Amino acid sequence: MSNITNGVDGLFSSSTADLLKQKQKLDGANSGEAFAEHLKGAINEMNDLQVKKEEAVADLATGEVKDLHQAALAIGKAETNMKLMLEIRNKALSAYKELGRTQL
Predict the structure, then answer these.
(1) How far is CA 84 from the centre of its chain?
(2) What is the pLDDT along the chain (104 residues), one digit of tens a residue?
């Protein structure tokens, strides 16, 4: 299962104590580098899902697909992951623009 999916599922199933432990881990490390590593990992995972989606679409087009359900799942996961990454990008751009408007 993907790291992003595990991360999202972890948000809903984590207790407050678990979230505080995760926060303490991040506080101990350089949080800027930790964020960059998480973002890089998420982008790499999104790329892997896109590659799997392209393979599934190619298999569907050539008739080489063995399990239609698995192909549909790969396409759905890639689509959902792309939507999530676009929303993250939009929020990051919005925050950057807001910081640019901040007066010192």
Answers:
(1) 6
(2) 444 445 544 444 557 777 777 777 766 656 667 778 888 888 899 999 999 999 999 988 898 888 888 888 989 999 999 999 999 899 999 999 999 998 77
Distance CA 42, CA 46 (A): 6
List Cβ neighbours of 87 (8 Å cut-off, separation of 6 or more).
Answer: none
SS (H, E, C) 1-66: CCHHHHHHHHHHHCCHHHHHHHHHHHHHCCHHHHHHHHHHHHHHHHHHHHHHHHHHHHHHHHCCCC
* CA–CA distance, 80 with 36 (Å, rounded to integer): 22
pTM metric for this prediction: 0.59
